[in-house]
Every structure is written in C-alpha cells, then in structure tokens.
Batch of 3 targets.
Target 1
Amino acid sequence: MILVTGGAGFIGSNFVLQWLAAQDEPVVNLDKLTYAGNLRNLDQLRGDARHVFVRGDIDDAELVARLLREHQPRAVLNFAAESHVDRSILGPAEFVRTNIHGTFNLLQAARAHWSGLSDEAKRRFRFLQVSTDEVYGSLAAGDAPFRETTAYAPNSPYAASKAAADHMVRAYHHTYGLPTLTTNCSNNYGPFQFPEKLIPLVILNALAGKAIPVYGDGKNVRDWLHVDDHCGGVRKVLEAGRPGEVYNIGGSSEKNNLEVVQTLCAVLDELRPAAKPYASLITYVKDRPGHDRRYAIDASKMRRELGWQPAENFAGGLRRTVSWYLAHAEWALSVTSGEYQKWVSANYQERGAA
C-alpha cells in the first residue's frame, strides 16, 4: 500500500492511473478536491478495490495520522500542492498554508509512523516529495541547465513555498533519519491538466475562438516534460532512489512560449481546421511580475543512476495532448466553470496589452 496525496490533480491522477495499470499494489489517494482536483480524472478506477479515495487536506494532522495508522503505507508520495505561479501572485497565503505547512504536517505524521515500524519496515519506507524546477530560479540564455546541486533561488511565492517545503524534507532526513526522496521536474503537459496552464489554455481558447494570451515577448523558455514520463521517473525514484537524495526529472525539450503556442495552433489547424488560422488569435499581454526567463533541467543523474530517460519527444507528445483535449471536450467543459472564468478575467483581461 502507498499513500498518494493530491492524487486527483493533474500529475497525481496520472501517477495513480499509471501505477495501477502497471501493478496491483493498492493506493490510498488523499485529495482536498480544490478547483484543480477532479475525481473525473479517475473515472476508470470506479469500483476498483485497489484505489481508496479519501477527501481531505494534507494540513489536517488528525486525518493524516489516522490514514497512516489504518493503512500502514510503505511510502508517502506528496503530489499535493498549490501550483500555479499566477495564482500565487494574486493570493500567496494559500500557497504558504498548503505547500509549506501541509508538507510539514505530512512530515510530522510520516516521522511518527516510521518511528513505530519494525527495523525492516523502517528500511523500506520512503517519503517522496514531488517538487519543481522553479525552486532554482531563472537561467540566462547561455547558462548550464539546473542540476541537483544548483543553489535554490525562488522568484515567485509559488516557487518560494515549494523551496521551503523541500528544505523541510531535507531537514527531516538529516535531523531525524526519515528516508526521504525529492524530485524536481520541469514543465509538465498532457491529459487532465487544468486549463490555467499554458498548453490547455491555448487549446481551449483557440477552439472557442477566444484570444490566446502570450506574456511579454513570448520568449520565456521552459523545458517540457510529458506527464507520463514524469510519472515514470517518480516511480523509478521510489523504486531505486537513494534516501536523502534529490533527482531532477526533465524532458530535454527547451521551447519558448511563443514557439509552443504557434506549434499548438499549427496542430489545431490540421486536426480541427477553422475559418481562420488559430495563430490569428495570439494576443500579447502584459508580462507576469518577476517572470523567470528560462528553465532547463539536467536529468543526467536520473539516466546515470536509475536508467531513466523520457520516452516521449515534444512534437509527438504535444500532438497526443491536443488529440486528447479534442476527444474530451466534456471533461474540459466541466472544469471551466464560472469561477474559472472569473479568474481568467482577473489574470489576463485586466492585465491589458503588452
């Protein structure tokens, strides 16, 4: 049995689906079901006894302790997080509560659980923190990609909250001996991603004939990683990672935002042609405050130590992602509620033109 937190969100739900497709080890799935958590992501597991869903908050100490006591998981994987930079700029308090204090609460509960295990169970237990490359800050055009030894330099409230959580995880290993693992991933994309993020936002806005917003000059660079590859990397780290270590999981696919948007428009032109090219909807908006210029991940430690590398190239993964959203219009409609539209208005329309 493993305990997965945030397992109804984008990455967490993809991980749970991949995990149970590959093996029969049960999953206890703890998710608060905020705006970005969606049980419809897990529809195919309805009636599957291997999947136990619990609605709750990682910051609920009593609940987390009870789940650990009742289910005795051999591992805790923390996917639960507030994760959107723009939302952290508009309202940082929730990021501090969930990402920092929630992770602290999980660590406290995991430490208490681990301390009561037999020696063999202690040796096998793992606490895996799923983090982000944004904790490392921003790179210049000629800088080497982030490595596990790169100093933390977070530039947004979101990144700072994840950095703080990562430091707590490290401290619990070094101070108490808790067998922790931390993964730092690059930008994910794929099925079930909430449409506040760039790729699904572009797809859904384009299909609706709405403006496609691009921050600033569109030249901010991200390293793109298909969510299936990320989940496979996390499984590898859980299986064979060394306690106390950090592993960077990246797609080796650096693209600037404008390039991603233009590629998406071209794929949509081919798969769902409209009266005008979708690229005609591209609209430049005022840049995000403190917008990091470039992220890039050096995943050589994953290749060298764990034999992992991404299976999906960006072109193929992007086409597969567009096809998924085209085939799941009902899912997209269900998550783009009135509250979502209010947020889009606050974040994009009220920014004004670049």
Note: The domain at 2-192+225-251+294-311 is CATH 3.40.50.720 (Rossmann fold).
Target 2
Amino acid sequence: MNLQSLKLIVCGTDTDVGKTIISALLVQGLEAFYWKPIQSGFEDGGDAHTVQKLINLPKARILPERYKFKAAVSPHWAAEQEDQLINSQNLKLPIGKQPLIIETAGGVMVPLTRQYLQIDQLKKWMLPIILVARSGLGTLNHTLLTIEALKKRNIPIIGIILNGPLHPDNPKTLEEIGGIAVLAQLPLLKQVSSEVLAKQWKKQKVCERITKQIKESL
C-alpha cells in the first residue's frame, strides 16, 4: 500500500504520555512532514524543536504552528492569557500530497476555546487517529474513554501505541474491550535518538501494522 500521501493525527489519552516521541517515531518511519498546529509552552523551543532534535529532521519538513502560546497550559487558557482566541478557520489542513503527522495539543477533550473542544476539530479534519497511551496503571480507563468519545463521533482510529514499561495484560485488555489494535509498545528508553527509534520501528513492524489497519478499515 502506498503511504506517500497518508495523513495521521497523533493524540494522547492524557498529559505527558509521550505524543512527541511517538510523533518523531512516525515522522521518521514514514518519511513524513510534522505539524503541531497549536503549541502551548515553548520554553525549550516547543515540540517541533524536540522532534527536529530527536531525529535530525530537516526544517523544511516541519510546518509552522498556527498558534503558539507561552504558557504550558490548556490551549484555551493559554490563548486567553495572551488576549487571543483560537479560530478553527485557521486550522485548515495544509495543502500537499506528502505524508503528514499532526500532533495535537493534549487529549481529545481539551478545550481550544470555551465553546470548542479538540474533538470538534478532529471531527472537522476526519483523519485517522493514532492514540498514544501510557502502558501502566490508569491507562485502561483513560484509553477506553477516549476510544468511546471518538467512536461516538465516527472519527476513525488506526490504533494505539503504548508508551512505557511493558505490561503483561493491558495491551490484550485494550484490544478486547476497546476493539482497537495495539500497533506498538514503546518500552522505557534510556535515551531517545534517531537510531533508537529506527530500531523500534523495524523491530515492532509499525509500518506493516499501520498498513494492515488502514486496509481493514477501507
């Protein structure tokens, strides 16, 4: 299957679950462009800078943020602190046939304004979602609630990538109850680099699993 024009959204089930590392994994593995439409908090250059640094990504493959706020808080509040308002009309998908990984600002129910949730924007985009979730305690509740919210709105989910120490049961339980495939289980890495992510990509056959899930959803 040709993945050259594939566009995927990376969304987390909670804060700090590893969306940016998984985004880097996918950008490198699919030779994709990277886009973080809304960035809240950029003391270290923001997530685009992190992805670029992790995998030595050329700047030409990083699309500029549409909104960039200083405070590392929910986008709606970060915008308000700078007397701004996030407008969904400014979040239209970039034009282009290149593969694209879109990293959201937080989870599906995060407010972009006080009347507009991130899941409302996901519904507008209607692109396949890859959920990033913690591997351990608490992930079942958070992940299953996220799956339920997306399914209720008929937003397609390609699969789940678990991040953290390998768990003996959670992947099986998520697949059985959530009905969504676990694409990969990224273990706790001592260091993250282009080489380390490339090994995980190949070892876990992530591309093949994504292709399989897309084919089955057609």
Note: DSSP finds eight helices and nine strands in the chain.
Target 3
Amino acid sequence: MTTFVIGDLHGCLTPLERLLDKVHFTPGADKLWFVGDLINRGPQSLETLRFVRSLGDDAICVLGNHDLHLLAVIHGIRASGGRDTLNDILKADDLPELTDWLRQRPLLHRSDELNVTMVHAGIHPKWDLDTAIDMAREVETALRSTKYVEFLSRMYGNKPAKWSRKLGKHRRRRFAVNAFTRMRFCTREGELDFSCTNSPEKAPKWLVPWYAVPKRKPIEGRILFGHWSAHPGFAVSNVVPLDRGAVWGGSLCALALETGVTTVVDNSR
C-alpha cells in the first residue's frame, strides 16, 4: 500500500487523472490524501468534488479556504466572485449531499503511524501539536453541528491576528480557521499577516513564513501543506509544501509518504 498526498486541485480533475495513472494508483489498496482546495478557479469543480467524494475510505481530505468559501456562498454569507467557478456545483442536483460531505471533512489530519500531520495552509507557530488538534476539532465540531450556518457567518475577518488562549469562542475559532486555511506569513512575533502572497524570498523583511517564526513550537514528524502556489517546492526539513500551482498552469504533484518520492504532471497544456 502507498499513501499519496496530492497538492491543491482547484477543480483540475484531468491532471489528477493523469497523475493517478502515472503513479499507478490502485483503489482499495492505495490511499489518497488531499491538502484541501478541491474546488474553485479551475474548470471541473463539480466533477472534482464528486470524484473525491466517490473515493470513500480510499481518500482523506482536509478543508481549504476555497472549500469553506463554497459553504459560505451556498448559504448566502458570501457572494460568488468573478473568478469563481462554482456555478455547476451550486446548480447540481446532489448539492445537499456534496455540502454535507464537505462539512464533515477535517481541518487537520494526523497519522501517528506515519508520523505526519496534514493541513491546508499551516500550523500556527505558537501551537504545539496538541493545541493544533484541539483547535481543529473545535472548528470541526462547529461545522458539523446544526448551527453551522451561524458559525460560517462569524468565520470571516483578519482579526484577531495574535493568538491567545483567552480569546472568546467566536474569535478563537476565526483565528483557527485563518491559521489552518489562509496563513502564509507571520510577523516575527507570530501575528498573522495576510498582506503578502509572494514567495518567501520576495516578502517584506518584517514578514517570515509561518514555519520560520523564531521559537516556533516544535511539531514531531512532517507537516504537509498546500495553499501557497508561489512557494518553492522546499521549505525546511520537516515542512513539505505541495501546492505547485496546477490551476495557474503549473503542475500537480503527489508525494508518496512511504518512499518520499514526488511525482508531478504538467498542467500547462
């Protein structure tokens, strides 16, 4: 059995199919992990969502910011933007089933056996693994509850930028969503900053990647993340970026966890 971790799909089903063929993915034997942002921006959002859902127990997917955006659009909390490619999903006959499936996905997946943690954007530098898991489970519980629309209505905003255990419930959950699904850079003190989406070497000098914040809490094992298409394919030894910008004409990659081999397919054609 091989566990393949796949970068951000963004509705690009055709390159995913080519990638799975290239790695000789075997349903029922191999496993697929997805780092989130299954949908939006690309041309096959509905087909991609249906495909990943159809994989059943062969797939694990964490939620990304675009996946949460879809839930907010469905409930009128956010308007669909000009670059969104969500119309086919919004008009789909199986929208209720897709919505229910999506909001059951986790924000963080941890495998003690493989010593790996997967999230969409990152783990806040002030969090140890136990805190990260606790915050992920708190948000997941809110998303899966009967009051999840109320949670979605309070989810948006760039503040608070600074982590504190004393944050109130709604602000604490918003911070967690931002850290897990939107974070790229922090100040050197660990405050979230969303002003820059460039690669690390092009960032203002007062910003550092979340994983490079001084005195970051150590996390055992590898951390797998996506979200950052401008990021090069290497970060630090135990932090593995997997978004290669497939939807922007880059490539889609699969990391085989057991062997460490990365396979890519080009999406420029």
Note: Helices lie at 13-22, 45-54, 65-74, 87-90, 95-102, 129-144, 148-153, 169-181.
